[in-house]
Amino acid sequence: MADELLIRTEELVKVFPMGRSEVRALNRVSLDFRAGEFAGLVGPSGSGKTTFLNVVGSLDAPTSGSAEVLGRRIEGLSHREAADLRNRSIGFIFQTFNLLPVYTAYENVEFPLLLLRVPAAQRRRMVMDALEWVGLADRSRSRPAQLSGGESQRVAIARAVVKRPPLLLADEPTANLDAENSHHILRTMAALNRELGTTFLFATHDEKVIAYLHRKITLVDGRVERDEPLTPAAGRETGP
Amino acid sequence: MIRFLCLGLWRDRSRSLFPLLTVVIGVMLTVVMFSWIKGFTENFLGTSARLGSGHVAVMSRAYAGERDQLPNDLALTGVQGLLERLHRDFPSFAWTPRIRFAGLLDVPDEKGETRAQGPVGGLAVDLFSPGSPEPAILDLEPTLVGGALPAGRGEVLLAHELASRLGLAPGASVTLIAGTMFGGMATANLTVAGTFRFGAPAMDRGMILMDVADARAVLDMDDAAGEIAGFFHSGFYDRRAAEAAAARFNARFASSQDPFAPRMDTLITLSGMGQFLGYMDTILGAIVAVFLATMFIVLWNTGLMGNIRRYGEIGVRLAMGETKGRVYRSLIGEAAIIGLAGSLIGTVLGLALAFYVQAHGLDFGNIMKNASLLMTTRFHTHVTAAAYVIGFIPGLAATVLGAATAGRAIYKRQTSRLLKELEA
Prior knowledge:
The structure holds two protein chains of two kinds. In chain A, α3 (105-115) packs parallel to α5 (149-161). Chain A has seven helices and ten strands. The longest helix of chain A has 18 residues, at 179-196. Chain A is 33% helix and 29% strand. In chain A, α6 links the parallel β7 and β8. Chain A has a single domain (5-229), classed as Rossmann fold, CATH 3.40.50. Chain A has helices spanning 49-56, 79-89, 105-115, 120-133, 149-161, 179-196, 207-210; strands spanning 5-18, 21-34, 38-42, 64-69, 72-73, 90-93, 167-171, 199-204, 215-220, 223-229. Chain B is built from 16 helices and 14 strands. The model of chain B has no long low-confidence stretch (mean pLDDT 87). In chain B, α1 (2-11) packs across α2, α1 packs across α13 and α2 (13-53) runs parallel beside α13. Chain B has helices at 2-11, 13-53, 61-65, 79-89, 134-138, 160-166, 201-204, 212-219, 239-252, 267-271, 274-309, 311-319, 324-360, 387-390, 392-406, 418-423, and strands at residues 56-60, 76-77, 93-108, 114-125, 144-147, 155-159, 173-179, 185-196, 207-211, 224-225, 227-232, 262-266, 362-363, 378-379. Chain B has a six-stranded mixed beta barrel with strand order 3-4-9-6-8-7. In chain B, a hairpin with a 5-residue loop joins β3 (93-108) and β4. Chain B has two domains: 2-47 and 275-423, no CATH class; 56-234, no CATH class.
């Protein structure tokens, strides 16, 4: 499992039309990610980090080149197949949490399992497990408005991991959090990576996130400028 | 998933309350308006039948041709035999002879000289024969303003306004001056037993009501009647059954050239209300269509606003792997839940209001004082079986159509922009 190839991009190009000209957001990006990685794409704004997450998250198709995620060629997927891939195999964590405001923490975490039609008893066990992983089992009845920013992001992490996806994509997950909460949720994600084997792929320019990474890929103008292994500086062994 | 949708609707009142209120109000108004127009039509038909010529009427062809002139010289003869045949061949009707006439009412003073005089329209009905349906049809007791119902020969009822105008009180003597069936002059001294008010201005201004035997004696109409009125035992006019009965009856005399041969006409034909009823049906259709269109537009806009407000929620659901079709269907599912609940509540409230007005009515007497229509001034709704569903289908359809139209925007969402949008 640990060495299993999860993502492979080859000569990945993504071009966005911009009036009469065009912007090359990704320029011949070739990267491999193996199961269990805790890796991050770093770089300035406009370097192509989010575009890369979009493509491997099956939210967008490449202009040319190829992207294979969990054995599926992204460029050949229909809307329904792409949705199915996201539904079953990919979790997302957003900068602004994006919890459904009228539902409790429990119900927010439960939602992906409803989409997968998981039976009720199993669903309840999985939701409570996920909330326990992020340390919020006692807040399961709270609504997003009753949670702090850090707690909201931990619920968002629980929602992303509850279906045990092999791949979790996080776009600037700490951008709206203070330092203490950032470290808390990063420790949570590191623990999930370690204990569940979930592969994490971040898009970030936050030094606090970079401090937890095992691998850092630096993008500049849509190209891979550097791809380097890291020794995590932060407490990776510290659980949430 | 349905539980999930219901929870969302229950907790997010801005998602459910306004659309629900729109549907409730729209459906309630549809049910009440529908029942009101049905009641209005029923009032018109019922009053015309009760105080006019029944649900169907048999008269001579010649009489029918000049019916507005009250041509008693063309009246039916051999009525008793015809009545027996009608009872036998058309048992779903109650048959009764009626005579209409016009005349002059003279009020003498103590010396027998004319003190007051006025024109009257007369209606003679069978008040005293055993088994006569007229007392039940006319239901005179509640219409009495003063005095009592006629108890014997020579006693009549007068419209209260006419009696007041002529200075008459119950017990007074009057002289009726009219024309006989054969063109002679007829006079009869009568006693005013009581005064009535039907609540139909056309009848209450100048009408005299008397027993048909008295009218026959005065007008020299032995075994004759202007019309034989037929009333459905149910009390309600059944257009199809009435037309079928008329067609069956008239077929028997189709080959006859006799101008005095009997013919049967329906209430709609006699009152010229066919066009009126068609117009009412069109109005009913238009009311339902207007409410449907209004609700659709309001709910469409509500759906659009809801989609804008829930832009982030829909985005994150798409990002999590819910297909656009499934999100779209869930919005329609929410709309169906609101539509069902709103239509149910609106129908219950509308029916409650309609039943109340059906029982108590609304009095428009003050604004109908001079009306010449043969209808009562107290209007009632009439709750029919259709009222139970008339608002339900438009309420549900408008909600679902509104959500379906507004929800099409989901298909324009580009998943490639979701991450950017969700960061905003």
